[in-house]
Amino acid sequence: MAAHQQNKPSGERNRKNTQNGSRTLQVQWGRAWEVDWFSLASIIFLLMFAPLIVYYFIMSCDQYQCSLMDPLVDLLTGNKHLSDIWNKTPVLTYKAAGMYTLWVAFQVVLYVFIPDFCHKFLPGYAGGVQEGAITPAGVVNKYEINGLQAWIITHVLWFANAYYFHFFSPTIIFDNWIPLLWCANILGYIVSTFALIKGYFFPTSAADCKFTGNFFYDYMMGIEFNPRIGKWFDFKLFFNGRPGIVAWTLINLSYAAKQQELYGQVTNSMILVNVLQGIYVLDFFWNEAWYLKTIDICHDHFGWYLGWGDCVWLPYLYTLQGLYLVNHPVQLGTANAIGILMLGLIGYYIFRVTNHQKDLFRRTNGNCKIWGKKPEYIECSYMSMDGTKHYSKLMTSGFWGWARHFNYTGDLMGSLAYCLTCGFDHILPYFYIIYMTILLTHRCIRDEHRCFSKYGKDWKRYTAAVPYRLLPGIF
Ligand code: NDP
User: Fold this and answer.
1) Ligand 1 contacts CB of residue 301 (under 6 A)
2) Residues 71 and 85 sit within 8 Å (Cβ to Cβ)
3) Distance CA 5, CA 336 (A)
4) Residue 473 CB coordination number (10 Å)
5) Distance (Å) from CA 389 to ligand 1 centroid
6) For this protein, what is the EC number (predicted)?
7) 213 phi and psi angles, rounded to 5 deg
8) Residue to substitute in 279, 300, 447 for testing ligand 1 pocket (most ligand atoms within 8 angstroms of CB)
9) pLDDT tens for residues 443-463?
10) Averaged pLDDT, 351-364
């Protein structure tokens, strides 16, 4: 509580300042200090319904062959009661609890106790100790970047088991999917609640905490910016990357193994999902140091949104295509398969090149070449909470001259490709593209609000130079 009382006045002091001629609030870079009714209503809705949404999707695949309508029809026509569905739902088992505990503990060991060695022999890979971006309080955190190594070790062990040791079946994840859901929820809630308590009583960096005074908002969006235990266990980096994203490719492999077991073959659609999402996951770990400069790490506080989201939402809903394909094995025609592959690869190319251009530009402070030329940019300034003035640059060259978030456009193209592998019989596999469109459009708006608060009139000059957000000439 002391930290709370100590922090809030300094935040309020800063809120009264003006910057860059804008009337917006100085150093309000992250989430809103004052919670409007719409944000509060959305948060309460998500806290209440997000776990149910995940359950509904997974249950519909378990009991209704991935039809989202059939459970509703059954319930509305009185054909079934909620208790019928609930009674058919697999319960938490000791086996799942043991598996999940072992899984998370193994990832903790890989994260905390095995310093990165990949950067010593992989040319171009930035692993080992890396610095994050400067926080609003002026802190620069150091991170041990060893996600690629954790991913490689985990997958080598997975394949060694599948092809040589046979300690467990590669379908183990699919076979325990709902019992594991309960474990993931338990961890998600424990982590988020712990983060809230830690924010109040023993924050890692008190000056970077954010209190809105609204319990639900603080629980959901987080108080602490970069909660840590000890020097290296960073909650944001660990929970987003490790149990969630390392698991993503393993979950897909387990789905492919289940197809093989059930139908004696793996369909080309399942291979496409594994390959395209595998590229996305590997890209994430290859560029983990770059991830330190993304909104998740640079601007979001750690609460239920990231804690529960990383444990439950991401592994369960980002992998719906594979789950769907176990229930509905789709064999695509060659032309369709090639078309989807091209869409996915072009989307990935745009996503990667756009992100790389900004990263290169920021790392070299503009002393680089973008598409063979010196980049153009807008000079801008901002203040950190200690009153220090900093300078930055917003690039207007390359894909960043086409639209202000062309990286999101590439991401959306890739997301659409995953969904298209599943054909058009059901809406469930399209959840991902619908969700990503909402997430990334909302992110555009949220990020631009923050950037305007940070850079003031310099941000306006930038938006005048690059008028579109996602699609040049349209939005
Ligand atoms: P960005 O990487 O686009 O980062 C936005 C930040 O970059 C801004 O806040 C600003 O920060 C800086 N910036 C903005 N414009 C410029 C410019 N013209 N020149 C230089 N710097 C600029 O956003 P995200 O962190 O949201 O996304 C990173 C990637 O992750 C994206 O490709 C996105 O698609 C992906 N993603 C994927 C998700 C998933 O669930 N699969 C979820 C979220 C993101 P500053 O304050 O430093 O100026």
Assistant:
1) no
2) yes
3) 60
4) 8
5) 22
6) 1.3.1.21
7) 90, -10
8) 447
9) 898 888 888 888 889 999 999
10) 92
Closest ligand 1 atom to the C-alpha of 295? 25
Distance CA 123, CA 82 (A): 56
Can you tell me the distance from the alpha carbon of 361 to that of 369, in angstroms, rounded to the nearest whole number?
8
Both tokens of 90, joined, read 């697999």
Q: How far, in whole angstroms, is CA 195 from its chain's centroid?
A: 18
Cβ–ligand 1 contact at 437 (below 6 Å): no
DSSP letters spanning 332-372: --HHHHHHHHHHHHHHHHHHHHHHHHHHHHHHTTT-S-BTT
Assigned token pair, 124: 């171009």
The rounded Å distance from CA 404 to ligand 1 centre is 9
Identify which has the larger pLDDT, 133 or 191.
191
Is 248 near ligand 1, meaning CB less than 6 Å away? no
Helices (H), 202-299: 215-221, 235-239, 247-263, 268-286, 288-291, 295-298
| pLDDT(244) > 70 | yes
Q: Which residue type does 471 have?
A: L
Q: How far apart (Å, rounded) are the C-alpha atoms in residues 437 and 445?
A: 12
Which 3 state secondary structure label does DSSP give 379?
Answer: strand
Question: What residue has token string 């959901």?
Answer: 220
